[in-house]
Design a protein that fits this description.
By secondary structure, the chain is of the alpha/beta class. The protein is built from 13 helices and five strands.
Length: 337
Amino acid sequence: MCHRNAPLTPTGRLRLAWCVVEDGWPLRQAAERFQISHTTAKRWADRYRLRGWAGMYDRSSRPHHSPRKTAAAVEERVVHLRQEHRIGPLRLAVRTGVAASTAHRILRDHCLPPLASLDRATGRPVRRYERTRPGELVHIDVKKLGRIPDGGGHKVLGRATGRSNQARAGHGYLYLHTALDDHSRLAYTEHLPDETAPTCAAFLVRATAWFAKYGVVIERVLTDNAWAYTKNTWRKICHELGISPRWTRPWRPQTNGKVERFHRTLLDEWAYRQPYTSETERQAAFPDWLDWYNYHRPHTGISGQTPASRVTNVSKQHMRTTSRRPFSSRWSANSAM
């Protein structure tokens, strides 16, 4: 393959060969004309005499014989173990007696995708999709989160004291209801006391109004098969709002994976990011985090853009907010630690 500073392309080599072979130019004269060494000029002229136009292309540097090449039977065993057990190069190397780098090369030569690109249940490549416009599909899900007792839990007081404090204060949960746009990843989340059908329906009404403020009309919603989403209450509110309800296949949470991944990010970067002394303190920090997520945090799933940058409002300008910029820069600095 020609590098970017190569003086001769295949077409240039052919012209050089014509000058020497067909027109009878001396090698040194042709080399000076094409600004190359006379040995290079001789090489291309000789190749033209032997193979014509086909000789003007670079030849493979692969050796004719490879006595230390991995045996075909070993390669077949590596491929079989990968497909059967879905394990990586290091574990394949231990089982087959080859180096991990060799196992990796075999997987690459057989075009087997990385484990991260495979579905854990079936072992098939994950089918990734993205809707073409905001509002075409909105993912909805609920995340149940244990409440923090006043005075703090085990992260603040230690495991023994934290459990005692939790026992005195009583157990309880809050429910994070999230609506996340498939195209932009823009998220709307509320803390609610339960996940009953009326609560879920009321949340959808507020989420629809929130997205509408930015010119986003929800066309479809995708949920799992939880009790609240299969009742007539949910179907009725979707019909009143002009939204088409969709449900994932049973036991297939991957279909609603975008909102599932958002909840994981939410837990890592807000709920469990730092010790909180009370549930009130944790909830007070949530609006700032959600603002940072929507407007300032680069999202790797959309090529490093922010969710808000992919939503166009009525004036056709990207949304942005300035009220929480001091917090967003502080949060980014903490995330880099």
